[in-house]
Amino acid sequence: MKPRILFIDEMTNQLDEASAREILGLLKKNLPGCSVIAVTHQKELSDLFEGRIPWRPVPA
């Protein structure tokens, strides 16, 4: 059974960009129709996602 939604949090933070792209590409290929919600600080990967929500701290 394949998931409909996948939550990943800093899954590729220890990988170089090429390796991170390969892993995320494999997810996309092997989980068609699955929505991926990811947390990452790797801005260079943002083109792999259809949308993004930038983090903004809430003012005190």
Structure description:
InterPro entries: P-loop_NTPase (IPR027417). With 60 residues, this protein is of the alpha+beta class. It has one domain (5-48). It has one helix spanning 17-30; strands at residues 5-9, 35-39. The protein has a two-stranded parallel ribbon with strand order 1-2. The longest helix has 14 residues, at 17-30. The chain is globular, with a radius of gyration of 13 Å.
What summary fits the major beta sheet? 2 strands, parallel
Globally, the shape reads globular
> How many helices?
1
Give the overall pLDDT as a whole number.
90
Compute the number of structural domains: 1
What percent strand? Answer: 15-25%
Strand order in the sheet with the most strands: 1-2
**Spatial gap, N to C terminus:** 44 Å
| Helical content class | 10-25%
Low-confidence stretches: none
The count of strands amounts to: 2
Radius of gyration (CA) equals: 13 Å
Give, in order, the helices and strands. Answer: EHE
The structure class reads: alpha+beta
Concise account of the structure shown:
This protein is of the alpha+beta class and 60 residues long. The protein has one helix at residues 17-30, and strands at residues 5-9, 35-39. A two-stranded parallel ribbon has the order 1-2.
